[in-house]
Amino acid sequence: xxxxxxxxxxxxxxxxxxxxxxxxxxxxxxxxxxxxxxxxxxxxxxxxxxxxxxxxxxxxxxxxxxxxxxxxxxxxxxxxxxxxxxxxxxxxxxxxxxxxxxxxxxxxxxxxxxxxxxxxxxxxxxxxxxxxxxxxxxxxxxxxxxxxxxxxxxxxxxxxxxxxxxxxxxxxxxxxxxxxxxxxxxxxxxxxxxxxxxxxxxxxxxxxxxxxxxxxxxxxxxxxxxxxxxxxxxxxxxxxxxxxxxxxxxxxxxxxxxxxxxxxxxxxxxxxxxxxxxxxxxxx
Length: 284
Prior knowledge:
The chain is of the alpha/beta class. The protein has one domain: TIM Barrel, CATH 3.20.20. Helices cover 41% and strands 15% of the residues. It is built from 12 helices and 10 strands. It is globular.
């Protein structure tokens, strides 16, 4: 099957469907999962310093035989890496862990710490050729506004919880004028059975000979969302990629859009997140 791509606001062409490696424990398991994904045709891997498995991602890409420019690597800086004088060194360490000369997309993982200084340092990394595109993860409200106001390079991507029950319409509208693309974590609603078993997905699955999950992923792709469902199951890995050979109609897309409840699964306030994560420092 042929990978689909989206064009970012900085001109780069990004594979739309990838593999997320969150909660894949250790470099060995990560290398195995990424190797299997690349063999199936995946060309986008989403990792992070906080996931503690960047070395496994880099090793799999090196051993795949694929040209570096044919595989898109997304990673994320943790708040302990934030700061105008701190972030440059953190980026160099990330490049070393991934064993690559550049990162395709680098995100700020959480909206606390010296994110302003970190954003300025990421802009410098783009100019130095160490990073191609930059963006944000889990930013909203005043802290998002602060970045948008000071940025000389506007975010290419915003990575947030996004699925049929929580479609982020207000955030999409806010970012549309600058062309920021939406990336989804929890694209399947954290595997919630109520979402996965909505009757519309069963109906469409039977029509197109697809699973309910494949219908949801196809909905994401047709809305130009970037998605990277995590799995180490070889069957699910293959099934998640087999969503490129059918297309939902406008009416079918509208029926799924109507499921929006503006309800999320991840409920942690900014204050709780700062308390939980603020002092944690990932190992290098």
